[in-house]
Amino acid sequence: MPNKAKYDDILTMPLDELDERVEQALALFAQITELFPGLLELTEDARRHSVGYYREGEAESLASLLDVAAKKPALFETLADQDNGQDPGKFEPGLIGDRLRRAILLGKLMKAADEIVGPVGDTRIHLGNLTRPVLLAMYEIAKPHAKRDTALASLAKPALDFFAAIARASVATRARNKKSKPEK
Fold this sequence. Notes:
0% strand, mainly alpha, 184 residues, single chain
């Protein structure tokens, strides 16, 4: 089997090589997803209003309170109905500890994921900076010509339809907002 050339820059590697690597990464992501059955997906609103975000090192430091609960359980009896346990009359530090350890372990996974997601996202934004302005200018040039040139309109249809849908949604939103504003 011949050695494949090694490309050390995502911005210059041939597109077919990039496409192949993206497909390999997608397969790996699918394998990762299979490793963690039962992962939850919150709504954007639930995510935004959650109190479950831990700051860097916070979860690990709060774990020390479980040691306090083991030594002085009576101090925490008043939290029995707040621990989301099986018995609303009994504080369950073991359950809290189990959940906390899971959150800490998943935090390691999140950190590793962020280390790839951040640079991938930043590279995509960089490529967008290099392409989107000129593509939007091309759209502005093509749009009026498409009204009179059916062949051009057919070629540009995905872009024309995309921005027309945004315009329709914007008009609908403005109309809803106008109706909901109280009259002066």
